[in-house]
Every structure is written in C-alpha cells, then in structure tokens.
Amino acid sequence: MLKETIFSKIIKHEISSDILYQDELVTAFRDVSPKAPTHVLIVPNILIPSINEVKNEHEKTLGRMFLVAAKIARAEKINESGYRLIINCNKHAGQEIYHVHMHLLGGKALGPMI
Ligand code: AMP
C-alpha cells in the first residue's frame, strides 16, 4: 500500500487548495508557490509515485491530464501566447512530491527550457 501524499489529501478535499478542475480521473489546482502567473498542477486521482511507475492501465488517466492541461490553458487565456508542461521524475529532475503531477506554466515568456 502506497503512502498517501499531500496531493491525495487535496484530491479528497481534506486540505484546502485552489482546485480549478476535478473529474473521475484527474484533479487540477494552483501551485502553492507559483513560478509563473499561471502555475497549475494536474494530478491523477490515483497515486502513481513517479513516471517510472506508469503502467498500461494508466494510459487513459495520462491522456486526460493533457486534455485538462489544454482546457485550463484556454480558461487562463494562455493558449495563444503559449505555455510549458513539465513532469519531473526523481532526484535529478528535482521531484519533490512523489505523486505524478504535470506543471502547467504560462502567462509570461518562460525563457530557455533549462
Ligand atoms: P515537483 O518538484 O515537480 O515535485 O513539484 C512539486 C510542486 O508542488 C511544487 O511546485 C510545490 O510548490 C507544489 N506544492 C507543494 N505543496 C503544495 C500544496 N499543498 N498545494 C499546491 N502545490 C503544492
């Protein structure tokens, strides 16, 4: 049994967060420490610790994350100007929360990728 993360608690509304979207597969909420005018995290409702643990059965959920990213980008009016999607995996990428999440960043020129 995997240990629940802070994101599990947000998904279950056990701790407060600025949730923008939720359905049966994913939840999206604003990052508590935004790195850009729009900084949203899109998270599977089920706990997958990192991309290393992704399995075939997660395909629909992972696809939904992209659909929700595009939907939120439109809602935030950054779809035309552009945005960046980031998923960190493990130490070298600086992953802090071991619950897969996609960062949606935009609202200003983001500069070089790294
Ligand atoms: P990562 O480094 O990819 O694991 O990113 C983790 C992200 O989670 C960071 O950008 C944090 O600011 C964000 N974060 C941590 N705790 C919370 C929280 N309670 N609500 C929203 N975002 C959070």
TrEMBL record:
Catalytic residues, per the record, are 101
Pfam families associated with the record: HIT
The chain positions of domain HIT read 6-114
GO function term, MF aspect, one: catalytic activity
What CDD domains does the database record attribute to this sequence?
PKCI_related (cd01276)
Q: Per the Swiss-Prot or TrEMBL record, what residue ranges does the short sequence motif Histidine triad motif cover?
A: 99-103
PROSITE patterns on file: HIT_1, HIT_2
Name of protein: Histidine triad nucleotide-binding protein
Which source organism does the UniProt entry give?
Candidatus Pantoea edessiphila
> Which taxonomic lineage does the organism of this UniProt entry have?
Bacteria, Pseudomonadati, Pseudomonadota, Gammaproteobacteria, Enterobacterales
